[in-house]
Design brief:
Layout lengths: L1 H20 L49 H11 L4 H7 L6 E2 L12 H13 L5 E6 L6 H20 L8 E7 L10 H7 L1 E6 L1
Parallel strand pairs: 2-3
Antiparallel strand pairs: 1-4, 2-4
Helix pairs in contact: 4-5
Length: 202
């Protein structure tokens, strides 16, 4: 009887201990993450800028690009600025027209102002040309008188051309008076042709 009581007591103490201690928790092993499955921080991909697309049909309006309408003007300016030899200049100087004067006068006439302006434009367009402005007269009056009159006529034209923007250092003045007539007839029309200023390329 006493032995049975001890057995029951032992069982009771063991069950009580189990109840108080609780069941052992199941330990879940830590799952190792492989290198392949670990999250990897994304690095932004640097894309180099693509070269601009050039459209052959598009018009480039940048300041470094020649506009179509500017090409003829620039080509003309380069041609006029190019150095020319004396023969070429003399051929081109045929565009320079003579200026005529009334009897005993050295002031330019209003009718000749367009001629003076055209001659000035030619000289501006050909800065390499050096021009001799020659004053002439008819054979009426003394030779000394006509030499002075021819010089005044040449200076009158020179001053008018310089006032239009021509470099004065490119111009020289000389008077031939009545010594180099253009027309040899003794008539008013011939006298008029001899009272002139002529442009000569030096």
């Amino acid at each position: 009887m006493k032995g049975m009581f001890q057995t029951v007591l032992t069982i009771f103490v063991g069950v009580s201990f189990l109840l108080l201690a609780g069941c052992p928790k199941k330990i879940t092993p830590i799952k190792k993450t492989s290198r392949a499955t670990r999250p990897v921080a994304r690095v932004p991909k640097v894309v180099p800028p693509s070269p601009p697309i050039v459209d052959s049909g598009a018009v480039n309006n940048s300041s470094d690009t020649l506009k179509e309408e500017e090409i003829p003007r620039i080509a003309q300016r380069e041609e006029s600025d190019a150095p020319l030899n004396k023969i070429d200049l003399q051929e081109k100087a045929s565009a320079l027209k003579e200026v005529y004067f009334d009897l005993d006068q050295w002031a330019t006439r209003p009718i000749d102002l367009p001629v003076i302006e055209n001659n000035a434009n030619w000289l501006i367009a050909h800065p390499g040309a050096k021009i001799r402005i020659e004053g002439h007269g008819d054979n009426r009056g003394t030779n000394e008188y006509n030499l002075v009159l021819g010089e005044k006529r040449a200076n009158s034209v020179r001053n008018a051309i310089v006032s239009l923007g021509v470099d004065a250092s490119k111009l020289t003045v000389v008077s031939f008076g009545e010594e180099r007539p253009f027309c040899m007839q003794d008539s008013d029309d011939c006298f008029q042709e001899n009272r002139r200023v002529h442009f000569h390329v030096e």
